[in-house]
Inverse folding.
């Protein structure tokens, strides 16, 4: 009888490890890479990682994903909510939020799936804990007191979180926020700064959500670009170069003069630059609003 698909993949990756092509400490193929390279479902890829871990070939390390095991393995610490959240963050950083599941985390931690529910209720709660944890790592020091400097510092901190962890923007909600301490701290800083600036009370939340939407929207774009680059190996500038002829062909019809004029100029695809420009534009708008009757 032929081996199951996951067993064949396990055998191939094990051969890479034993032959030295993958050395101790190297990143092992992630679940996303396994689904792409072998054309299998995410559940099968997760089973592959579980089997490799069970064979003692790989370990999961926060911030590094699944790596080839090196040396003698240390005794795992006791299961806790913080350890579960950290493992989930590592999985999301490597493979995105869809790869995060109680079963996958249990596999990574060498624990029973049901034991996780003693510390975390469900995936929805877990995702919000993850977002709040990574936000807390960035939002530590009090921002400057002047309202504009405070907003510039605070909003940039949230953007930094989205860049470090591309899945965060997907985890955040404008309309259904969860009561989490660190993200509430971010909102408090923004609202307090706007209040100090003298913005009318009925506009505080509207401006706050507008700034938040600027970060989240670009964060979703950052996530999409990060996964596209990982899946294809092609950066956005290279992708545009590959499609330039098609854009020129359609533009040559003369039906898009404004677009043709704009793209004839040097155009930056840098999302950090887009973020900074948008933030400056929004805060300039707040200043003008403060100066109007």
């Amino acid at each position: 009888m032929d081996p199951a698909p996951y067993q064949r993949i396990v055998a191939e990756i094990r051969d890479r490890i034993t032959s030295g092509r993958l050395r101790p400490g190297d990143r092992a193929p992630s679940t996303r890479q396994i689904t792409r390279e072998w054309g299998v479902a995410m559940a099968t890829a997760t089973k592959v990682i579980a089997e490799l871990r069970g064979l003692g070939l790989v370990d999961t390390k926060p911030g590094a994903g699944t790596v080839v095991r090196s040396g003698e393995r240390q005794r795992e610490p006791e299961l806790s909510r913080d350890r579960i959240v950290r493992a989930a963050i590592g999985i999301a950083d490597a493979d995105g939020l869809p790869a995060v599941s109680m079963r996958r985390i249990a596999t990574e931690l060498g624990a029973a799936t049901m034991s996780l529910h003693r510390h975390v209720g469900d995936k929805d709660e877990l995702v919000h804990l993850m977002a709040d944890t990574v936000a807390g790592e960035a939002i530590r020091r009090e921002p400057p007191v002047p309202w504009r400097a405070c907003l510039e510092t605070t909003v940039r901190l949230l953007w930094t979180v989205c860049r470090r962890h591309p899945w965060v923007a997907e985890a955040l909600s404008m309309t259904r926020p969860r009561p989490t301490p660190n993200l509430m701290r971010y909102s408090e800083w923004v609202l307090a700064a706007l209040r100090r600036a003298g913005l009318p009370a009925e506009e505080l939340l509207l401006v706050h959500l507008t700034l938040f939407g600027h970060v989240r929207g670009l964060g979703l774009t950052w996530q999409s670009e990060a996964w596209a680059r990982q899946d294809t190996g092609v950066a956005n500038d290279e992708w545009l170069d590959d499609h330039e002829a098609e854009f020129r062909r359609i533009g040559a019809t003369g039906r898009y003069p404004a677009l043709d004029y704009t793209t004839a100029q040097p155009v930056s695809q840098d999302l950090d630059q887009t973020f900074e420009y948008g933030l400056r534009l929004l805060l300039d708008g707040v200043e003008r609003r403060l100066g109007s009757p």
